[in-house]
Write a structure and sequence with these properties.
The structure holds 2 protein chains of 2 kinds. Chain A is mainly α. Helices cover 78% and strands 1% of the residues of chain A. Chain A contains 13 helices and 2 strands. In chain A, helix 3 packs across helix 7, helix 8 runs antiparallel to helix 9 and helix 10 packs antiparallel against helix 13. Chain B is an alpha/beta fold. The chains are: A mainly alpha, B alpha/beta.
Chain lengths: 307, 272
């Protein structure tokens, strides 16, 4: 009897501490959500007044940015962000996809053991280091090469640097998507006489499509949000680039460049830049989430009907 | 309009608050803390730190944050001395006493190999507004001029714009922008066709400073005012400086304080 009572007491004590820990974890989880809510509120509170003061149209469609003189057009920066993001994907997507296919489908285990951590290491390099390498090597290379030219500080330089920086994101998530494709798909394809390459392009990639699209979207998010490396190589001129060799300014660069001395409407306009950036990244993340949740249904569609 | 009125009222209220803050600090100094806080211009900060090192009258804390923050800090008493590296707008001066402690020239720099060593002020204006686009128009090589500028809001850019540009000539949007003086010098030192501007103290042999209307930036030409592309380094106090703040400002303006400024690349307040 004594033993049972003791055990029961111990159990209820364990139950209580479980509950306490559960509550604490819930609180910790909520603090992340709460921080997001506070950041959102703060950015909106600081940025919206000047947006409504000037009219949202001037911000989104205005072509001139001279905040100390009352011009707050963000369109050149929106264009700049779009250009370097697309450029980053043009460079990063083929490389990333090739890397993911190699690692998930082709490479022998020993090579994979070396390559996979290396790719992950790429994500650990601070962005200022990417920027510095870009400034010291890439920019002079572009400037002094006969075929390219221009100031070197350009959309091209930013795209190349960002293209490398999005690789870990694209490769990592694509590998997950490829590995989630059931082995039976590959076996079935090979059994039908398809070569390994035909299996990859005809069966595995289509089955992993949604995951790969999510990888690309998250890669885009990474490119849109990158700041330091871009500031160092993009040239930061507020203009619509005529070619990839022209300097551009991104939304993130706009905030980081000017925040130190900004005051009044200028500071508010930088917060407004933050709102635009916030909406873009929120949109991209939501999109990636949607596409990924579609993925979960996809195998059912593709899976052979069982009777 | 009501919003503006409200803001003004709030600003007045903000001016009332620091009285309490000041009282607090004089209490600590009575206890032997002897702490003076300087806050403001990032351009002045390194020089203020040098002065603080050599000053023996008490402990000095130097914070940066930009000229605007410095002016605000002097206003609301969060700092004993605010530092501004730009002339104050009329609306900012209320209640503040300005003491110019040094002058900082702004040198227009080109690559060391650039044969163009002189421009007129009008030519410089045309270069930065994008009207002169090729070095050959200035007697140099046939190459596009790469214009580099500082970011909007920077004190160095403010001073440059105030002296070189005007309402009809704004800095062309195609100009490269960087937020760092040292970074700008590096960009110019690496690009044979670039032109930029940095504070006089950032001038090194890596780049060449051009003369403007025949006058080269030197300590003497800046101090005497003949080289006009310059800005004042201003210490701001809420009311006339008193006590510890006054003692520190007197040290900065003394012969040894000014000698220190010159050794660090600034021009003294007056020609010596």
């Amino acid at each position: 009897m004594m033993a049972i009572a003791q055990a029961r007491r111990r159990l209820s004590a364990a139950h209580l501490s479980d509950q306490v820990i559960e509550r604490m974890l819930l609180f910790a989880a909520l603090s992340a959500v709460g921080t997001l809510a506070l950041i959102t509120l703060f950015i909106l509170r600081e940025g919206l007044p000047v947006v409504f003061d000037r009219g949202p149209l001037e911000f989104l469609a205005g072509q001139k940015w001279a905040p100390t003189r009352g011009h707050f057009g963000l369109l050149p920066m929106i264009a700049g962000t779009a250009v370097v993001t697309i450029g980053a994907l043009v460079i990063g997507l083929p490389l990333g996809l090739a890397g993911a296919i190699t690692l998930a489908e082709l490479a022998p285990p020993r090579i994979r053991q070396v390559l996979k951590p290396t790719v992950e290491l790429l994500a650990g390099i601070p962005s200022v280091v990417y920027g510095f390498i870009g400034m010291e090597i890439l920019v002079p290379l572009i400037r002094d090469s006969g075929a390219l030219g221009g100031p070197g500080y350009s959309a091209l330089a930013a795209s190349i640097i960002l293209g490398i920086m999005v690789l870990p994101t694209i490769i990592g998530i694509s590998i997950d998507a490829l590995e989630a494709v059931p082995k039976s798909y590959r076996d079935g394809s090979r059994a039908l006489g398809a070569t390994q390459w035909q299996t990859i392009t005809g069966v595995v990639l289509p089955a992993a499509r949604n995951g790969i699209v999510a990888a690309v979207i998250l890669g885009m998010g990474r490119a849109v949000g990158e700041t330091m490396a871009v500031i160092m190589v993009a040239g930061n001129a507020v203009q619509f680039p005529n070619s990839v060799l022209d300097p551009v300014r991104t939304l993130t660069a706009n905030i980081a460049l000017e925040m130190s001395y900004a005051s009044g409407a200028h500071a508010q306009a930088l917060f407004a830049t933050g709102i635009v950036l916030f909406i873009v990244s929120l949109g991209l993340n939501t999109m990636a989430g949607r596409v990924r949740s579609v993925k979960r249904r996809a195998p059912r569609v593709l899976a052979p009907k069982t009777r | 309009m009501p919003a503006l009125h409200l803001r003004r009222t709030l600003a007045r209220l903000a001016l009332l608050l620091p009285v309490g803050a000041c009282a607090d600090r004089s209490d600590t100094s009575l206890l032997g803390g002897e702490l003076i806080t300087l806050a403001g211009s990032t351009s002045i900060q390194p020089f203020a730190e040098r002065w603080a090192e050599e000053y023996h009258g008490g402990r000095i804390v130097v914070q940066s944050g930009g000229s605007t923050a410095g002016i605000r800090a002097a206003h609301d008493g969060t700092a004993d001395i605010g530092m501004s590296s730009r002339a104050l707008h009329p609306v900012e001066t209320a209640g503040l006493v300005q003491t110019i402690v040094a002058r900082d020239g702004i040198a227009v720099i080109v690559h060391a190999s650039n044969p163009v060593h002189a421009t007129s002020l009008a030519q410089l204006r045309d270069i930065y507004s994008g009207r002169i686009r090729n070095w050959s128009q200035l007697g140099g090589r046939d190459a596009a001029i790469r214009v580099i500028t500082r970011e909007d809001g920077s004190g160095t850019r403010d001073a440059f714009e105030a002296f070189v540009m005007d309402a009809q000539h704004e800095i062309a949007p195609a100009a490269l922008v960087t937020a760092y003086s040292g970074g700008l010098r590096k960009m110019v030192s690496q690009d044979p066709h670039a032109i930029g501007y940095v504070t006089f103290s950032q001038l090194t042999a890596e780049v060449h400073a051009i003369t403007i209307d025949g006058i080269a930036p030197t300590e003497r030409s800046i101090a005497s005012g003949t080289y006009r592309l310059q800005r004042p380094f201003v210490f701001l106090t809420h009311g006339p400086p008193r006590g510890d703040a006054l003692a520190f400002i007197e040290f900065v303006l003394s012969a040894s304080g000014q000698r220190l400024a010159r050794a660090e690349g600034l021009a003294p307040v007056t020609v010596q």
